[in-house]
Each structure stands twice: as structure tokens, then as C-alpha cells.
Design brief:
By secondary structure, this protein is mainly β. It is 8% helix and 31% strand. It contains two helices and 29 strands. It has helices at 4-31, 54-57, and strands spanning 71-72, 88-91, 97-100, 108-114, 119-122, 129-138, 141-144, 155-159, 178-181, 186-190, 198-200, 211-214, 225-228, 243-252, 261-265, 282-285, 290-294, 308-309, 321-322, 335-339, 344-348, 350-353, 366-372, 379-381, 384-386, 393-398, 402-404, 407-409, 415-418. The strands form four sheets. Strands 2, 4, 6, 8, 9, 17, 20, 22, 23, 25, 26, 28 and 29 form a 13-stranded parallel beta sheet that branches. The chain is globular and about 65 Å long. 39% of the residues are buried. The model is unreliable at 1-18 (pLDDT under 50).
């Protein structure tokens, strides 16, 4: 008699096939009513970004990790004392291009300094590369990929450091728990292009549903995380319907259906998400191949009380809670700052997670600071910012910088544009 495990093994392909048949049948039923970009609004035509050439964008040309003048971080001959760094503060050799092409493990380095004329370059590694540090000062260049050579493999840079008691009132070095490019420093981070970075639902999502119909084609991948945005009236810490779900597979919508993509989920949606002629819920991609993140010590320690009762009573729809005063003020994530008229920050295909330092001036997930008209050299594109503790992108005294195709969620304000005058 076959064992239980044998029976289960034989049953799984049948169940999977049945699931796909049911999904296909549902697609046929809803395809005539599917909401498309052309029918997503009765009143206005919504602007659509130009379609990206994904194949071209992910073609490797002029890759910085293929430069013949590179020397290896992992070789003793690179370092003046003949010793490979194993922790503490590290300063790159003068006028050297140093390549990291394998993980540095869980060792937490101190300040890593890239002096003028030097470069720190990350190369591809199918197993992924990890760097843990308390800060990076970039006066030369920090590169992971290039505009014409997006990094296709995982790279994670984790920033460490607990929040000091005087964080909101005492100035600290800008590189602390952050990447700080200044002077003529160049920050080049370019991960694999995923397009689109977000779409709208082509049909409603019901509780228990394990698939999403999107209005646009996407090249998202199995294992990536998406956010399914709440479509309810109330959206607060103590009551919301935002969901983070894992992609199981992605396929094109049936020909002629008007559906751009069918996303199968690894687990079921918990809530109802609306898709009506006038409004459709959004779905955003949070995962990227390059991730810059704060360590676990970034999380706020004063978040136990999620919400407080509204002393004035319910306003409407049983909205009877408000944020508690003097709570959620201790988040202390990593940050990225590009500062000064000669500095340049080019960021595309990057995930910023657990970033921003609550109520610490100038410490945001991404900060283009006093670049002036030199901001024309800088941009933040097709990236994701989530679990932010202080805004998302800040432009201060910066003109002509480009922000486009981004997805931001779980944040305190999205974009801050501060004086002096700024132009985008």
C-alpha cells in the first residue's frame, strides 16, 4: 500500500493543476470586465510612464567590476600592511579601485572611508554579498553596477548603531549609520530593473484569494515581496488593510483580456481590495537586488501603544482612535546623504529598508543635500522605500534632480522639498 507521503506527492501536481484551471476559468469570466489603463477612470486620462526596455536596461556594458585596474579587497597585497581587514575602521588605499566580489559575512566594520581618487566597487556574486558597517564616508566613489550595467545579483549593505539619548538635539557626524557622499564623492547604485515598479488591480481581490490581476505587464520574480495597498477609508497603525505578500509566479494575462499580468501568491490575501471603474487598489513591488537597510537595532522602542482613544469620540465610520502622543519617536534606521555641489548620487533599482532616523534633522532614507544645479547629475529611479522612520526622499537646496518610478510604503511623509529653492 502506498505510504501517506507517496499519496501526498501524487496529489500535489493534481491540486496545482486544478488551481491553475480554476484560475484560468476565472480569468475568462472576468476578462470582459477587466479594468485596463484605458478604462481606469471615467473622468480623466491618467498619465502613464513610458514603457521601459527591460532587456536593454539589464544588458551589461562598461561594468565597473570589469575594470582592469581593480585590486581585490580579499587580497593581502591590496593593503599597505599586507593584512586583509577583518573589522574596525577601514580606509581604502590612496588612488586604488578596490573590488568586493564575495560576502564579508556578519562582521560589523566601523567607518569605511573611500578617500578622494579611490573607489569601492561591488561585483556580482550569485550567492549574494553582505556588508555590515557603522557608516561609509565617500569622498571618492562607491559603485555597485552602473547605468549601463545593472547589478543582477543580491547585494545587502546593513547599517548598525543604536539611537543615542540626544539624537534629536545633538549633531553627529553625517556618516554615522549612513552612507555619506561629499566633496566630489560619487554614489552609484544600480540594481536589476524591475518594471513596472507598481500597477493597479484589474479586478477586485477577495479574502482567501491567491492571485492578483494587474493592469500592466510586469517582470517581477518568484520570492519577491509586494504590497497590496488598502482601499478602505481608515488607514492607521492600529487599523489598516495593507498586506505584504510573496510572489509565487508571474505570467502574462490572456491575449485580448486586457489583463497585463497574473501574479500568483504564495499565501492568500486576508482582506477585500476594491477595483472599481473610478478607483483601483495599487500593488507595489518592494524587493530589489540591491538593498540598503538599517539593522534590527533600528526599530523604535516606544511603539507598544499603537493608538489611543479619540477624546472627542468617533468622527465617522467608527474612526475613534488617534496616534498616541510621545510614541513612535525612537526609530533609528540607516540613511543615505549626498551633500554639496560637487557630489553626485545616481540610484536605481535599490531597496531602502528600515531607514530614516525619527526627528533627527537631515537623516532621511535618501537625502540630496545642497547640490544646487549640480542636482542635474543625480537621480533616484525605480527604487522602493519601506519601513521608513523619517520620510522617504528629501531634496534640500537641490535643483533638476530626477525622482521617478518609485514605490514607498510605511513611511512618515514621502517627499520633502526644502528651501533654498528647488526645481525638479
Amino acid at each position: 500500500m502506498p505510504s501517506l507521503s507517496t499519496k501526498a506527492g501524487a496529489l500535489f501536481p493534481f491540486l496545482f493543476t486544478l488551481r491553475m484551471l480554476l484560475t484560468s476559468s476565472l480569468l475568462m469570466l472576468v476578462s470582459s470586465d477587466a479594468i485596463t489603463p484605458a478604462t481606469s477612470s471615467e473622468l480623466v486620462t491618467l498619465a502613464e510612464p513610458a514603457a521601459a526596455d527591460i532587456t536593454l536596461a539589464n544588458t551589461a556594458i562598461d561594468c565597473p567590476h570589469e575594470d582592469d585596474s581593480l585590486v581585490s579587497w580579499h587580497s593581502p597585497s591590496t593593503w599597505p600592511d599586507g593584512t586583509i581587514p577583518t573589522g574596525g575602521d577601514v580606509t581604502l588605499p590612496t588612488d586604488a579601485k578596490v573590488l568586493i566580489n564575495q560576502s564579508l559575512g556578519l562582521t560589523v566594520f566601523g567607518l569605511i572611508t573611500v578617500p578622494p581618487g579611490s573607489e569601492l566597487v561591488f561585483g556580482p556574486n550569485a550567492a549574494g554579498i553582505e556588508l555590515h558597517t557603522t557608516g561609509v564616508l565617500v569622498e571618492g566613489a562607491l559603485r555597485a553596477g552602473a547605468e549601463t550595467c545593472r547589478l543582477q545579483t543580491p547585494l545587502t549593505i546593513t547599517m548598525h548603531g543604536s539611537r543615542p539619548p540626544s539624537a534629536s538635539t545633538t549633531s553627529r557626524d553625517p556618516w554615522q549609520k549612513g552612507i555619506f557622499a561629499t566633496g566630489g564623492g560619487v554614489l552609484d547604485l544600480h540594481g536589476k530593473l524591475f518594471s513596472r515598479t507598481w500597477s493597479r488591480l484589474a479586478a477586485p481581490v477577495l479574502p482567501g484569494q491567491t492571485h492578483l490581476w494587474l493592469q500592466h505587464p510586469v517582470n517581477w520574480e518568484a520570492g519577491q515581496t509586494v504590497v497590496l495597498v488598502s482601499t478602505e477609508l481608515k488607514d492607521s497603525r492600529d487599523w489598516h488593510r495593507n498586506e505584504q505578500l510573496t510572489v509565487q509566479s508571474v505570467s502574462p494575462g490572456p491575449s485580448g483580456s486586457g489583463i497585463g499580468a497574473v501574479v500568483m501568491l504564495a499565501s492568500a490575501a486576508q482582506y477585500h481590495h476594491h477595483a472599481l471603474d473610478a478607483y483601483q487598489g495599487e500593488v507595489g513591488l518592494l524587493s530589489r537586488q540591491i538593498r540598503v537597510q538599517g539593522a534590527e537595532d533600528s526599530e523604535p522602542t516606544d511603539a507598544t501603544t499603537v493608538a489611543c482613544a479619540d477624546p472627542e469620540g468617533p468622527f465617522s465610520w467608527n474612526v475613534d482612535t488617534i496616534p498616541c502622543p510621545h510614541t513612535h519617536l525612537t526609530g533609528f534606521g540607516g540613511h543615505v546623504m549626498v551633500s554639496g555641489p560637487e557630489a553626485t548620487g545616481r540610484v536605481s533599482g535599490v531597496e531602502l529598508y528600515r531607514m530614516g532616523q525619527t526627528n533627527v534633522l537631515g537623516r532621511y532614507p535618501m537625502h540630496l543635500h545642497l547640490l544646487g544645479e549640480g542636482g542635474a547629475r543625480s537621480y533616484v529611479r525605480d527604487s522602493a522605500i519601506h519601513r521608513s522612520f523619517y520620510r522617504c526622499v528629501s531634496l534640500h537646496g537641490t535643483s533638476f534632480a530626477t525622482l521617478s518610478h518609485k514605490c514607498a510604503t510605511h513611511r512618515m511623509h514621502a517627499v520633502l522639498a526644502a528651501r533654498p529653492a528647488h526645481r525638479l
